[in-house]
Design a protein that fits this description.
The mean pLDDT is about 75. It contains three helices and no strands. The longest helix is centred in the last third of the chain and has 54 residues. About 85% of the residues lie in helices and about 0% in strands. Helix 1 packs antiparallel against helix 2 and helix 2 runs antiparallel to helix 3. It is elongated, with a radius of gyration of 28 Å. It has a domain of about 90 residues. The chain is an all-alpha fold.
């Protein structure tokens, strides 16, 4: 019975510490979010696309690493709970890990979308220029009509 209580206390302590850290982080983020967003936007505008892509890839990798570390800790506690046959604690840890996975997906989705947009812009940049040059060239040419002397199958 003492072992089950110890696992439960350890799990609760870990959850409360994580909740406090998340609350502090959220408070700090809301205070400086406006200024930071404006500065990031200006900096991104000045960065070349390759540097932007590298920055996003680094950020995604850091988020994934942080997420895997947190899940690893929770998984270790869950294994201990299962070993001690603390089924309620193990179930609570499963729910907590599922919640963390959802939160991670919400955090990483915007980053992945930005990365896809940036990659599409980089790939489409040359195509967009080619298309605009084609449109400009076509705008200067007179469209050919059937009887204007153009060689076609019917007018040889």
């Amino acid at each position: 019975m003492k072992k089950i209580g110890l696992v439960s206390v350890a799990a609760l302590l870990l959850m409360s510490t994580a909740a406090l850290a998340a609350e502090k982080s959220a408070n700090n983020q809301t205070k400086s979010r406006g200024d930071a967003a404006q500065a990031r936007g200006q900096m991104r505008d000045r960065m070349d696309p390759a540097a932007q892509q590298k920055m996003l890839n680094d950020r995604i990798a850091a988020l994934k690493k942080e997420h895997q570390a947190a899940l690893g800790e929770l998984q270790a506690i869950k294994q201990l709970a299962v070993k001690e046959k603390a089924t309620e604690t193990a179930a609570a840890l499963d729910k907590l890990m599922a919640k963390r996975e959802q939160e991670f997906q919400k955090r990483i989705e915007p980053e992945l979308m930005r990365l896809k947009k940036l990659e599409a812009l980089q790939k489409g940049d040359g195509k967009a220029r080619d298309k605009s040059a084609d449109k400009a060239a076509r705008g200067r040419e007179r469209p050919r009509q059937k009887g204007d002397g153009a060689k076609t199958k019917t007018n040889k």
